[in-house]
Specification:
single chain; alpha+beta; three-stranded antiparallel sheet; 7 helices; 13% strand; flat
Amino acid sequence: MLLVDERCLQPDLVDTAIGLFRSRASLQAEILTLRHQLNVLRRKSPQRLTFTSIDRLVFAGLYRLAPGVLDALKIVRPETVIRWHRAGFRAYWRWKSKGRPKTPLELSHLIREMSLANPLWGAPLLKLGIDVGQTTVAKYMARRRRPPSQGWKTFLHNHADGIASMDLFVVPTISFRLLYGLLILHHDRRQMLWLFSRPYPATLKP
């Protein structure tokens, strides 16, 4: 009689039950992952496994197709495959961004001359039949020097004679009551214009 250990059957039963709920594409991706790992192991690499660019592309592509293939990896760590996928993603968009056409020199000079002649810039290039993006126009427009704006300290110094500050506060009394106060202070000479308190906030009227 053939005796089979139940502990050995438990992982297989669990894997079989999980496989019933997987999609066909996910199962095919896992099979391809296992097959490619066998191909890597068949190579002559006595000391350390070496992965070529094609290997990395295959594993990263299968991970992109079905992220569940990480569970089928045996000769490479899942973190390594995720790192390969991210590196390929960055390399693709780095290559993609280099294909942007350069702006002709005549067009950049035209944008600069028209921005100097028309400060409001009403997008006249479209009327001339020139299709150019807004970022390109903003890049080559002439930069005008604006007068420096005054800071908050300078503003207070120039207009202190016409500025007053107001503060509302609460004062607890010895009888556990609350008094609501109002303070109005003139900024020019730090003169107190008004100070009084009331038992109710609605009655705070100078």
